[in-house]
Amino acid sequence: MFEPATPLAPPAGRTTNDLIRQQNLASVLSLLHSRGALSRAQLGATTGLNRSTVTGLVMELTELGLVREAPGGERTGKVGRPTLDIEPEDHVAALSVRAEPHAVTVALVGLGGVVHARLRHDTANAPSPRRFVQIVESSVEAMRADIDRHYRVVGAGLAVPGLVNANGSVLVSPTLGWKREPVAARLSDQLGMPVTAGNDASIGALAESRFGVGVGVGNLLYLGGAMHSIGGGLIIDGTLLRGTSGYAGELGHTVVDPRGRRCVCGRKGCLEAEVSLDLLEPLLGRRKLDEDELDVELGVARDPRVMAEVTRQVEVLSVALTNFVNAFSPETVVLSGYLGALLSVSRERLAEAVRVHPLGAEGRTIRLERAHLRSRLMLVGPAELAFADLLSNPAGFRA
Predict the structure, then answer these.
(1) How many angstroms separate the CA atoms of 265 and 211, rounded?
(2) Is 399 in a helix, a strand, or coil?
(3) 1.25.40.10, 3.20.20.70, 1.10.1240.10, 3.30.420.40: which CATH number matches 92-203+378-396?
(4) SS3 content of the chain, % helix, strand, coil (to 5)
(5) pLDDT tens for each residue of 180-231
(6) Would you say 62 and 188 are in contact if contact means Cβ atoms under 8 Å apart?
(7) pTM of structure
(8) Is 90 exceeded by the pLDDT of residue 5?
(9) The domains spanning 92-203+378-396 and 215-371 adopt the same CATH topology
(10) Name one Pfam family in it (predicted).
(11) Do the strands 239-240 and 332-336 form a parallel or antiparallel pair, or are they unpaired?
(12) How far apart are CA 52 and CA 6, in angstroms?
């Protein structure tokens, strides 16, 4: 629920009214960005702002080129004309970049989470940081003519499977083989725009909380399974948990079996070493399955070896989920990627893990959901990093 802005001590050179105006502009634009077209009445009811204030804010955001009016569904009377809704200007856009061990994806995403275009570049092996920057630059150049004609790009967001600090440097990404790489700075220099980097799982949690199953959820645990890794993201009291230097959420490296398989981090029995699509694909006789293909394969699988491995992995995952729920007490647990596919075939067992086994489970209700954004998750998510400054201070927008 959005609350009316409350006065805070203003920075030097700014009045309290200036600060309140900035907060109110941010509240209205952020609401339209995450929920789409709304009427002025809906904006007022959600933000707690009065009608005249909402009208003034909408006018200012329209003049800034950040929102527009569109025919709405409500009518002013029984035979009146439809009201005008306010919607985000999706030609205001950000670049969304995702680094994976065998692919680099670049997308153009407008306000409101609209995916205008995307390019995927498959690689035989994990690209070096230098090669990665080259691939991204060439992908953006392929979109350049369209971007220059139709869009105002505010910057780029980058999702990396690994530890990424607040400056956008990758401390370590075992699946990419990167260590201490200032990849955001390099990419910014080449693209000529600000680039913000983050851990892919934390970005997934952020995207699901704004556009997916986590809308309106104050405490959310997100667990995403990629081809070679598992990452976690946590929304605590409505805020993404970042931890020291932004390294919170490495739940894939929770040890679930000290005598288990060797993990890329060097330890044995990490969750991502024990619950992995890499262990299942050879049994399925397929490689590089996407999420939709995996759903089909698991839905029709009858091979006892496949079923046994799925059962083993689900049991390990259920133990991990019980521990995570005990530690963080979320309202909702969201599984995406490979883990979402496991949920689709083992919902009862995994639901039991989050609803029955945790301490105090009888006194609370915990939802277990599959990520709703599916294939859009890592297209929309990184763009949120690039939109952050705009959403927090719309009046300072320049593009």
Answers:
(1) 32
(2) coil
(3) 3.30.420.40
(4) 45, 25, 30
(5) 999 999 999 999 999 999 999 999 999 999 999 999 899 999 999 987 789 9
(6) no
(7) 0.86
(8) no
(9) yes
(10) ROK
(11) unpaired
(12) 18
